[in-house]
TrEMBL record:
The keyword Transmembrane applies. This is CPBP family intramembrane metalloprotease. One of its GO terms (biological process) is proteolysis. Coiled coil: none annotated. Residues 94-193 form the CAAX prenyl protease 2/Lysostaphin resistance protein A-like domain. GO terms for molecular function: endopeptidase activity; metallopeptidase activity. InterPro entries: Rce1/LyrA-like_dom (IPR003675). The lineage of its organism: Bacteria, Bacillati, Bacillota, Clostridia, Eubacteriales. It comes from the Bacteria. Keywords: Hydrolase, Membrane, Metalloprotease, Protease, Transmembrane, Transmembrane helix. It holds the Pfam family Rce1-like. The chain crosses the membrane at residues 51-76, 96-119, 131-150, 156-174, 181-203. It comes from Clostridium sartagoforme.
């Protein structure tokens, strides 16, 4: 996906289709080969408490991201974000709302299934806990590098990359605690809600 984002740069619909294949079908096909890999357990919620915790945590993350942008956004240059999205993947005012819906609900689930379910919970069963934490979080952060090329100056780029790594660690904590991806998915969803609101602002839609 990094190669596709940075080099091929297809339109967003094509890229999303490829991502669905790589992030969902590939792990599922591998689980057919490795019978000991049970992916069904990733979707089991044990209590309503988990959902409540996820919603509260998600609301906190939403407030933090949006608040950080409103307070600190003026200190950074976001002018390249809109032009890069339009030029590289064909996202503009006419389709951003549909992209935002996809990012919030479907894309967040794909990333949680792959980076937290497959590359953390299941990886932790065959590798050390420390390795699974670092590998999953680092892969999650580096995956976003290709799509963010040209968006920010180096200072904001490093800050964003560090935030993604720390976010991956936090998501992994919830996955480890509850042994499913639902909690981290809901939190990820709220994070994307905040990011999409920032996107609406940058596209001058609100």
């Amino acid at each position: 996906m990094g190669f596709i984002d940075a080099v091929i740069r297809p339109q967003y619909l094509t890229k999303s289709f490829v991502k669905i294949i790589l992030f969902s079908l590939m792990p599922i096909l591998y689980s057919r080969y490795n019978k000991e890999l049970n992916l069904n357990s990733l979707f089991k919620v044990k209590s309503k408490k988990e959902i409540i915790i996820a919603l509260i945590s998600g609301a906190a993350v939403f407030s933090f991201i949006l608040g950080a942008y409103l307070i600190l956004g003026g200190f950074f240059d976001f002018s390249n974000v809109v032009s890069s999205l339009s030029a590289n993947v064909g996202i503009d005012n006419s389709n951003f709302i549909f992209v935002a819906i996809y990012i919030s609900f479907i894309n967040s689930l794909l990333e949680e299934f792959f980076f937290r379910g497959f590359a953390f919970i299941k990886l932790k069963e065959v590798a050390s806990r420390k390795f699974a934490y670092i590998f999953s979080s680092l892969a999650f952060a580096l995956y976003h590098v290709a799509m963010m090329i040209g968006w920010f100056d180096i200072s904001l780029f490093i800050l964003t990359l560090s935030g993604l790594f720390v976010g991956g660690i936090i998501f992994n904590y919830f996955n480890e605690k509850y042994k499913n991806i639902y909690v981290s998915w809901l939190i990820h969803m709220f994070a994307n809600f905040a990011i999409n609101i920032v996107g609406f602002m940058l596209f001058n839609m609100i």
